[in-house]
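This part of the workshop introduces the protein records we will be handling. A record pairs a protein's sequence with a compact description of its fold. Comparing a sequence with its tokens is the quickest way to learn the format. The record below serves as our worked example for the rest of this section:
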Amino acid sequence: MSISNPPSKWPCFRNPASIRADILMSIKPEHIHNISTGAKNHEYRKYLLPSSVKRIWFYTSTTVAAFQFVALISPGKRPGEVAEDGGIGNADFNAGRKVSKFGYEIRKLWQLRSPITLATARKRAYIKAPPQKYSWAPPNLLADYPLEKQLCVLDRRTKKRKLAHLTASDENDPSPANCVKYDGTLDDIDGKVSSTDAANAIENVTPEVVKKKRRIDHTSDAQLSLHSESQVHTPAGHETAPLQTSEQFVHSPVTEPDHDNKVVSEHGLEKE
């Protein structure tokens, strides 16, 4: 058998461009809603994904029946390794109350500007049917939907979050500038970002963004100075209320039922 004509069943030859990093996975609408709002920051599964997997292209099942979101994920975590920061399911996972044995942190989330319906995915030969468990993303899908042109709706690495479910009218909001700029080691959509990509990301930060940040910093410094002075001149026996400078993040998560006990359905979902 000649290597120049390998069998199509070999995954490394079938999807050479995606075998390293991108997979397709089905998810229920309520779960992807909680992920997009930041209420749920880990996706739990009973199986360990290959260490090469960096991104999940989520296929929203049932009434939606379309690919809407792509997530940059962490390597699989085991019970006790997930931060109990209020994220849906985190405490139960650490306590061993879930059937799922592995958790994948949602580090960054993109919303596709044009959702890919099941009919479109079939027509363009991305998939033949909704993903069962998971499948590799084909190279033509990655080429047709480059992530740098999609909407970054949240990035846990920057502690920044944009409103989810944005539309194409948000063209003037530069992405990835609104999600990439942060202090620390830059993680690109493929893992480590190159110096060139980092420079490009910084160039994408518009003067308006810089001016806005400077106004916020200046206001915060002024408020802090005023607060310090007011404490110095406060008459004895009186107390001043502490200045609240931290941002408040409020969301109303959809109540999410436990979906660990699952059986694969005809829609690519794992039923309870």
Q: What stands out?
A: The helical segments are 11-14, 29-37, 90-94, 118-123, 139-144, 177-180, 195-203, 207-232. The chain has one domain: 11-225+260-271.
